[in-house]
Design brief:
The complex is a heterodimer of chains A (532) and B (157).
Chain A (H helix, E strand, L loop, with lengths): L5 E6 L3 H12 L4 E4 L30 H4 L8 E4 L31 H5 L9 H15 L24 H14 L4 E2 L37 H7 L3 E3 L3 E7 L5 E7 L5 E11 L2 H10 L26 E7 L15 E3 L15 E6 L4 H7 L8 H8 L3 E8 L8 E9 L5 E6 L4 H21 L3 E5 L36 E3 L14 H18 L6
Helix pairs in contact in A: 1-6, 1-11, 4-11, 5-10
Chain B lengths: L12 H14 L14 H9 L3 H22 L8 H14 L1 H15 L3 H6 L22 H6 L8
Helix pairs in contact in B: 1-2, 2-5, 3-4, 4-5
The chains are: A alpha/beta (532), B mainly alpha (157).
Amino acid sequence: MDNKDCDVLVVGAGASGAAFTWRLAEAGIKVTCLEQGGWLDPAVDYATSDPDWEIHRQTDFNPNPNYRNLESDYPINMDNTPISPLMYNSVGGSTIHWSAHFPRMKPSDFRVRSLDGVADDWPITYHDLEKYFSINDQITGVAGLNGDPGYPEKSPRQTPPIGLGKLGDTIASGFDKLGWHWWPSDSAINTVEYDGRQGCNNCGPCDLGCSIKAKASTDVTYWPKAIQMGARLVTNARVREVTINKQGLADGVLYYDSDGLLQEQKAKIVVMACNGIGTPRILLNSKSPSFPDGLSNSSGLLGRNLMFHPYAGVTGRFEEDLEGHKGPSPLNIMCSEHYETDLSRGFVRGYSYQVTRSAAPVTTAIGGKIPWGENHHDEFKNKFNKTIRFAVIGEDLPEPHNRVTLDPELTDSDGIPSPKISYTLSENSRKMMDHGIKTSTEVMKAAGAVEVYTDPLLKEAGWHLLGTARMGTHSSNSVVDESGRSHDVRNLFIVDGSIFVTSGAVNPTSTIQALALYIADYVSKNSRHLLD
Amino acid sequence: MDTKTNKPLTFSKSQFDLVNAIIDCLIPSNTNMPSASEVQVAQYIDSFTGNSPNSIRLMLEGIQEIEKTSHEVGSKTFIDMDIDSKYKILHAIETQNPIFFSELVRQTYNGYYTTPQVLRLIGTEGRPPQPLGYELEKGNLELLKKVQDRGQIWRDV
């Protein structure tokens, strides 16, 4: 392996790694990215043209890496968490299987301590990131509608909002009757051709990968541009640890190449972009006499304050066929009615709902718990294409006991210790979920649902992995500073969701990528002085 | 079934007959819908299960348990039982051996609801989502005027 020295080394080619690498390559900086997974070819690797397409949700496209168990996956100890962490390991990372719901965090999400007396304030604001949100939207391609009173005004959306269809109109009528907020939320899905990628053809299962590249995953958005500008991307390269020199600076990484051989990649600056589980895992494994508790962990906070976004599921059953198989399954209507704190509700902070369409046939039968036997067909007929689902997404407050550690026994196929997740749902979150279930039931009934089923806490829903290398003003209260720079190792940066101080109550990817671009500009502007 | 050789991967001929009888209890026919055996779900289970030694073992031991219970309870083969007795036996197995039974139900549903004939009968076009996709209406965005008229609902800091 020809390991060319590089100025900047990025670990992880997912949402944040791609955005960061592109921005640096655009600035003419020599950057190499190591990714443990490989490339997927949208034309052949996604199952949506196969007769058994739905079954792939149970096998190679299961979002849970423990069940999926591909070569690029590593096992995770999930025994001590009611929420299973989900991720995809490849070029594109979890943007390969995401639903592409792309809302930004809101201004108040960055000032939780000042406004609501809990958690902490970020050392940066929404307005610091505004320019980067817009840049990210431009590269990604966002379908949406300006004018949402739930947000500050944004730059024009790149394509029109995802179609509502009959199902969307039905649920909108429920919000309308109650006079509540709803809006076609930002989605990272082209609804018409944009930036050389065709528009969505409304096939439905975005979670199985987009064979026509209408859904924005970073393998089709950022990476082609970054590589064209000189970025180097090495796949099937699984990083084991970050190494340091005698001066206590990061000087590269050790990784296993595609033949399973240990390699060394030197770099002047090291950037972690492995998500809220992958990043603390590698840094905790990067032990040395100078850093016996893992690299960049003088605060003791590396791995701590894991935030998931607890999800409750609320499904309304309707009597008419809602044609729920048409259109992106994540319809991405969002309700911000209960987003901001209102203490009269009995909890602090708030939640949103994300609307999704009806489940596909196999998912209806299995997930909808259709009983076997004489009543099977009637029960199936009552539910198939006649349901609307809300994901109630609650703001998860940072709690130090919720954490990622290294499992004492479990390892991946290269012998790298696996992460172990320890997480409990807080009382505040439980009250918030219960409130969200109650209010979303009201919307369903107002829309005409004849029956409402609820799942108080979705287990296979740990999509968002945040907080485990938090940002802050001082090495005693955080792992990185306001520029994503490690307090302990001045040429080590973290750019993924690990650095979140609070989680907001929305999908984090838009904010993760805006942060990655923001930090990239800091690195680019200061690269000559970072080692001073 | 191995599609190249047409040889079964998991079940013998008599086991196929037993599996057909079992899955027709899980998904029977009605006036509109075929039973599971009528759309070759047993062949699907045979094929899918046959990819994994653990799955083969689980499935064969499970159906043997069903057959054994039939003999113990009714002194008959499962196939010869009346329908009520069949259901009773399957409910008992569901409780006694939940790992096998849930896997059996899962594979039966997987096989049934990926069959083009069944997909057409439940109201879809009976094809995978790509490459054709679907037509989708834009919807009524006029209702959003009322949302906008409420004014700002985000907290400015």
